[in-house]
Design a protein that fits this description.
CATH topology: Arc Repressor Mutant, subunit A
Largest sheet: 3 strands, antiparallel
Number of domains: 1
Number of helices: 3
Radius of gyration: 13 Å
Structural class: alpha+beta
Strand order of the largest sheet: 1-3-2
CATH class: Mainly Alpha
Distance between the termini: 31 Å
Oligomer: single chain
Order of helices and strands: HEHHEE
CATH superfamily: Winged helix-like DNA-binding domain superfamily/Winged helix DNA-binding domain
Strand content: 15-25%
CATH architecture: Orthogonal Bundle
């Protein structure tokens, strides 16, 4: 499926919303790994990781290293 471009900037638009990633964490019981989130959302692991890092910068999610994996949790109040 081709991605849409913004008419003014020419940049590709996001196929997935921030809420898609937050809902995926909720679907996993509030704590989920990057791969599980990617599978639920339907994107690549790399896309999920980049979006989750962005959400972390916005203080919408938190992350923690567990072994060799990152797990994600909804920031309190989301």
């Amino acid at each position: 499926m081709p991605r849409d471009r913004d008419a003014e900037s020419g940049k590709y638009t996001d196929a997935f919303s921030d809420e898609d990633f937050i809902e995926a964490i909720h679907a996993e019981g509030g704590l989920a790994g990057t791969t599980a989130i990617a599978e639920i959302v339907g994107c690549t692991r790399r896309q999920a990781l980049n979006r989750l890092k962005n959400l972390r910068e916005q203080n919408k999610v938190t992350s923690k290293d567990v072994g060799r994996s990152l797990v994600w949790q909804i920031q309190s109040g989301e």
